[in-house]
Amino acid sequence: MRLKTLEMQGFKSFPDKTVISFDRGITVVVGPNGSGKSNISDAMRWVLGEISSKNIRGSKMEDVIFAGSQKRSPMGYAEVSVTFDNTEDDGKIASMSDYDEITVTRRYYRVGESEYFINRKPVRLKDIHELFMNTGLGKGGYSIIGQGKISEIISSKSEDRRAIFEEAAGIAKYRYQKQEAERKLDATLDNLVRLEDIESELEGRIGPLEKESEKAKKYLTLRDEKKALDLALSVFDIDTAKAESGELEKSLAAAKNSLDRSDETLAELEKRDEELFSSLQSEKAESERAGEDISALTEKIFEGESEIKLAENDNTHLSETVMTSRGRIAEKKAALSAAEEEKKHCLEAVRQSESRLAALGGRREKAAAELKAQEDKINECAVITGELTEKYEQAQKDDVEAKVAVSVAESQREANLKKCDELTVELSKHDEDIGMLDERINRAKEKISGYDKKLGESDSETGKISAKKDELIVLSRKLAGQKNDLFLEISQRKHQISNLLRMEELLEGYSRAVRFLMTEYRAGNITDKDGAVPKIYGPVSQFVTVDEKYSAALEVAFGQSLQNIIVDDEDCAKVAIAFLKRRNAGRATFYPITTMKGNPVSGKALGIDGLDGYIAIASELVGCDAKFRGIADYLTGRIIVAKNMDCASVIARRLGFRYKIVTLDGQVINAGGSYTGGSVSTDSQMLSRRAQIDRLGAEVTSLEKDSAETEKDIAENEKAIKAVTEQEKTALGASAMIKTLRDAESTQMQILVSNREVLKEAREQIVSQLSQLSSLAKREGENADECTEKRKRLSEEMAATEKRLCDIGREKAEAEKRAEAKKTELSDCLIDIAREEKGAEMAQNALSAATEKYNADSDDIKALEESAAGAEARIAENTARAKEITAQISVLRAEAEKINSEKAALSERSLETERKLTEVRAKQKEMTHSRELIFREYANTEAAYKRAVEKSDKLISFLWEEYETTYTQACELCGERITEKTRRDAASRQGKLKSEIKALGDVHVGAIEEYKEVKTRYDELSSQTKDLRQSKEELLSIVVSLEERMKEDFSATFEEINVNFGQVFRALFGGGSAELKLTDKIDVLNSGIEINVAPPGKVIKNMSLLSGGEQAFVAIALYFAILKVTPSPFCILDEIEAALDEVNVDKLADYLKNYSERTQFVVITHRRGTMEAADRIYGVTMHEKGISDVLSINVSEIEAKTGEKPV
After folding, report:
1. What is the pLDDT of residues 673-722, one digit of tens each?
2. Residue 1094, SS3?
3. N- or C-end of the chain: fewer Cβ atoms within 10 A?
4. Is 427's pLDDT higher than 50?
């Protein structure tokens, strides 16, 4: 078995989910004091079943839950899970061999509840203890050595050292079995003494109970006889009342027939009245329609006359239009003649322009020939000019060379002088640059100061953002706390629902007979004589529903009948009763669906519907399946629910105390006037359970909705944290940017300082160059004078050539002047041609416009002629329409006269119908008076009938209230019926029975069952006492056997550990001696263990004389001696080498390496030597006060890459 992972959440300083993985070899945990390192070993000890808060450095178990910090709220629970690899044969847990991994989880809630899991399945703490027994990991094992605990192995009393040796010897399991056997033995002895006492007590009770039982049986016989007489007399009286009500019912039926006949006659008269009234209304409506028709015809006649007038007006207008169109046609024809003349004039202008263009073409050709002759003269002059120019240019070239030489000399001299000036200027510039650099250096210093200020502001802004982030983190933790609280509330309510459902399932609160019957029925043990299973539904309470606010009232209204059982029919009830009788399981009442029919009253019929405080008839507040409605009406249909006792009293008096009334808080006014009330227990109410389950379910839904909202808020808050984190990154980036700019400015300032020094050196060089350039300028002046004389000779030659060039130039200019005149003449000719072409184009455009105008006038004339023809056609059409409308008006006037005659006839018929309607209404009035007399007779008969029914109902209520028996059941139970003759004798016998029952005095009916139970219990106790005596002997034998096995195993292991202890001690101390001794070799199982050691060169008489480091080293030697005999799968060692020097720490590290092949070591340390032996290092830090973080370093990987260990 190998340790794989340790997962913590909400445990001490680890609020967030933290997973630590363990590899083979040595895992070292480091970190500063107070960072939470030791909480890792506490978590391992706690998850393996530690129940002492002191052993995990706490005052109470609640201390293991994260208690909160300045920025995070406390958590509601702590959870730790440890996972083991169970695939290896060495150390494999046999009981879990089917699992490759074993995960043990422990969860503790702040409310004090604990949960334990193995591979996510709920278990007991005892199961965890048993799982790790004899592995060194169990309670009292040696796999976990806490901080400061290593020396306790030495400093403890010799008796207290046994636990670690027993765990190593593997006898812890046997000791546990022995303790369990002794505990069972003690319990057996206690039970035996208790049972013997009870047996003696029961033996003294059997005699008196037997006498009480006989007396009770006699009472039951008399009571049953009295009940039979009561039932028979009640049945007789009910039959008499029913007979009376039957006669009255017949009279009521006769009265009802008379009333119905009167109603039929009245209905016929009303129908005749309605027919006549309808006919009258129809005639009036028809007359009104005739009037409307006459009005419509009159309106049509008026409209026709109007249309005729409109046609006449239209004709007049159209005649005017025709005359206007004729006048415009004449005007357009005159314009058409003028357009044709304009068209001819434009055509003539076009012809003249074409003739002028031909003449101008001849002038243009002549001018072009003269221009060509002048251009040839110009070209000849140009050739001569070229020759002279070439000569002149050569002279000029020589002059230029001389000039260049002069210029070079002058320019060199000037250049040197200029260079001197430039150097002077440069010298001045250097002085300015040095000053400017001084200014820039000062400005750079100011900028650096500004950047420092901005950096401070940026750091402040970053701090604000970090504070906001911290607030959001606090809110996140608060929301997590709310989520945990909601989880606890949901769990509590679900637990309540589970309990209520369990109570419903187990029929808690029901009588023994009901529970027994339903249990046997569900098991299929109830059958009739043919082997068929009867249909038994269950108690009434399970098939009715009520609103929770009425549950108290209806619980009282139903009373014990809630426990009574609903069955399909009478045969099912008989089978169930026979089964109870046969199994002697008590009594129960059954409600067959086929016989239970209620006769509910209504508040309206009783006249209490509007009374203050009246709620409803109880059956109206009961919900159930339709097939159970008869039973619900039977049980609650004559019970009234009122608001309170005052309202109930008013209603009871109003009804003459004939009905049972129940208030909302469970108080009762019984039929007859008695009052029942007081406090009502809500613990065992059956009707309210389902309502409570529904209410709790709704609360769970609401809480789950709140939990979902909290989840949403958590998600939004996480989003906000992410956004703020981005802002924080941006702010940090800005700070980094400002710092970068500051560093850049600082670097720039250094560059400026360097440049200033360079400029100062350059200035010194310029001063030296100025002296050299002054000498060179003097020599260049002399060279310039020689070149000036040469230029004078060349200038005279150039003047002669220039004169010749001027003459040729004049000739060329005259030729060019003449050529220019010809060009002007040719240009003028071209302009005239262009002007004439433009005139021809305008004449052509005018011709086109004249043609278009002529065509437009032709189109207008055609359109006007068409318009005149259309107007003449419409005049003819209007004249024909006017004649047609005149004929229609004549027809409409004849039709109006006809309708007027029909309207007069309708008026006469309406008068006749009104007369008949008056006669019918007179007969209606007479018949209504007759019906009122018949209704009075019917009402009196109905009242008498109700009184008879109420008398019968009261007798039936007596049967139920006194015996919980229905009339049908009473008829079946009463046997021989009482007649009018035998009623007096029956009543006399009834009185005698009452006297005999009274003479018996106080009777304890339960004595019969009590005697049976006591007798049965006495017999059972006698049998149990015998069994316990036998168990006692068996347990004593087991204890002796376990002790022998423990002695053998402990002695063998102790000797082996003693040998190893001496060897390890000498190896660690470099010599000396060490041994273990039993203080009592006879009583091996209870003997103390002494440790005797002698380091090299020392004689130690008492372990307390050793130094702290020596004591710790001795304890470590003993620890390794135990591991050598019985290796633990893993060991967690918390600063066991704190008291050792560096040399001994190195020795311990070597031993850890040697043992790490078989055992995983998790070492919490501050010592470098231990760290160097590590295969993996975990660092524990506190980035926030009170909250631990874990960082992982794989030493092997880093060593492989770098060749050095990261220590």
Report:
1. 888 888 765 544 666 667 777 778 888 888 888 888 888 888 888 888 88
2. strand
3. C
4. yes
Query: What does the chain come to in residues?
Result: 1207
b/e code 729-743 from CB counts within 10 Å (16+ = b)? eebeebbeebeebbe
How distant, in Å, are the alpha carbons of 264, 444, 695 from that of 743?
115, 11, 70
Would you give the end-to-end CA distance of the chain in angstroms? 30
User: Mean of the pLDDT values across residues 954-969?
Assistant: 75
Strand 114-118 relative to strand 121-123: parallel, antiparallel, unpaired? antiparallel
567 pairs with which residues across the strands?
Answer: 536, 592
Using alpha carbons only, give the angle 43, 45, 51 rounded to the nearest 5 degrees. 105
Residue 168 to residue 1057: CA distance in whole angstroms: 9
CA count, 13 A, side-chain hemisphere, 138: 23
Q: Tell me: the pLDDT tens digits for 215-270?
A: 777 778 887 777 777 777 777 777 887 787 788 778 878 877 887 787 788 788 77
- Find the range with the poorest average confidence among 413-422, 549-558, 994-1003: 413-422
Residue 737 contacts residue 464 (beta carbons within 8 Å): no
- Region 515-539: what's the mean pLDDT? 86
Cα–Cα distance measured from residue 335 to residue 101, given in angstroms and rounded to the nearest whole number: 120
Strands 77-85 vs 101-109: parallel, antiparallel or unpaired: antiparallel
Whether 1160 contacts 1132, CB under 8 Å: no
* Count of Cβ atoms closer than 10 Å to residue 856 Cβ: 14
Provide the greatest CA pair distance for the chain.
192
**Structure tokens, 1131:** 């060991």
Mean pLDDT of 72-101: 83
Residues 723, 729, 732, 734: what is their CA dihedral angle, to the nearest 10 degrees? -80
Say which DSSP state 535 is in.
-
Distance CA 1031, CA 1039 (A): 12
The answer to whether 1013 and 270 are in contact (CB under 8 A) is: no
What percent of the chain stands above pLDDT 70? 83
pTM for the whole structure? 0.38
Mean pLDDT score of the chain: 78
Tokens encoding 1126: 């019985």
| Phi, psi of 614, rounded to the nearest 5 degrees | -75, 125
Phi and psi, residue 1188, nearest 5° = -95, 145
User: Residue 709 has which token pair?
Assistant: 């909202």
In this predicted model, what pLDDT tens digit does every residue of 713-748 receive, in sequence order?
888 888 888 888 777 767 765 665 566 556 556 766
